[in-house]
Task: structure prediction
Amino acid sequence: MKKIIVGIIIFIIIIVLICEFTPVSEVLDNIIYNNYVSDNGWLYVDGTSIKNKRNKNFTLKGVSSHGLQWYSDIITYDNLKNLKESWNINVFRIAMYTSENGYISNKEEIKNKVIEIANNVIDLDMYAIIDWHILRDNDPNTYKEDSKEFFNEISNLYADKPNVIYEICNEPNGNSISWDKHVKPYAEEIIPIIRQNSPKSLIIVGTPTWCQEVNAAADNRLDFDNILYSCHFYAGTHGEDLRKNVEYALSKGAPIIISEWGTTDMTGNGSIYTDKANEWIDFLNKNNLSWINWSFSNKSEGSAIILPTYTLINEETGLSNDFNDYLTDSGKYVKNLLKK
Ligand code: DCB
Result:
C-alpha cells in the first residue's frame, strides 16, 4: 500500500514538473510535434511573441530567395526539400522585387514563379513568406495599386493556407519616406484587402530606412491583430544602435521579425563579419526573434549562400547536384546556425 502511494506521489510530481518546468515541456514538445505547418498551424501574435496553434512560442528560421527575376531557377522543389532536411529551415521567403525588371515590368511571369515556389513550399509543409520586395522604388505607395491587385489575388488563392505569410513592403527607404506619412497609410490600405480573403494570416510590415526604424512603428502601431514589424540588418554595417531600436520597439510592445539579414555589409557583397553576426544571433536568441537570411542564390557576392559555380544540370559534367557541396563562407556560417 505504502509503495503504491509513494509511486502515485512520484508520478504526480513528474507530471507537474513536465507541465510547469518549461524546458522539460519544451523538450517534450519538440519530441512530440514537428517544427512545420502540420503541427503548428495558423501562427498568431501574442504580445511580442509569435505563437502556434497550441499557444506555444514559435520561431521561424529560414532563408530568402534573391530577386526572382534573376535567381529563381535554383529554387526547385528538390532544393527546397534539401533546405528543409539538411538545413532545418521552416520558412522560405520569396523575394519578389517590384522594380529592377521585377514584377511591375513582367507581371504574369513573375507572379507564376511566386505561385510555383509557394506551392512547393506548401507541399513541403513549411511556411512561405510572399515578399513585395520594394527597394529602388523607395516608397511603398509608388506601386500601391499594383500591390492591392497582387495581394488581393494571392491572398484569395491561399486564403485557407496557414503556410502563407504576407510581407507587404520589403524596405521603405529615402530621406522623405516616413512611417507616419507613407508606410503606415499604405499598410492600412493593403492589410484589409488581405484580411478580407484570409482573416487569420500573419502580415509583416517593413519600416523606413531599409527596415531600421522599428522605433517609429512602435510609437504609432497599426490597429490590426497579427502584425509583425520588420527589422533588417547587415552584420558589417548595423550593430548596437539598431539593436537598441529593436529593444525600444519590444519594450513598447511591438512584435518584431528579422525578415531579412545578411552576414556582409549593407551592399550584400564583400567579406562576411562572423563576430558581428554572432553578436546579432545572441541578441536574436535572447529575444526569441524569428529570422530569414539573405540570400539563397548563387550570385557572385558575399551574402549569397551558394557559389556561382553551382548549376542545376550537372549530369554531363558528373559534378554534384547538391548545393551543399558549393557553399560560400556565408552559406557555411548560416547552415551551422540552423543546425544548432
Ligand atoms: C537590402 C535589400 C536587398 C539587398 C540587400 C543587400 O538593401 F532588401 O534587396 O540585396 O539588402 O544590399 C541586394 C543584392 C544585390 C543587388 C541589390 C539591388 O544582394 O545583389 O544588386 O540588392 O537589387 C539594403 C539594405 C540596407 C541598406 C541599403 C540597402 N542600408 N540597399 O542600410 O543602407 O540600398 O539595397
Notes: The chain is about 45% helix and 15% strand. Residues 2-20 form the longest helix (19 residues). The chain has a mean pLDDT of 95.
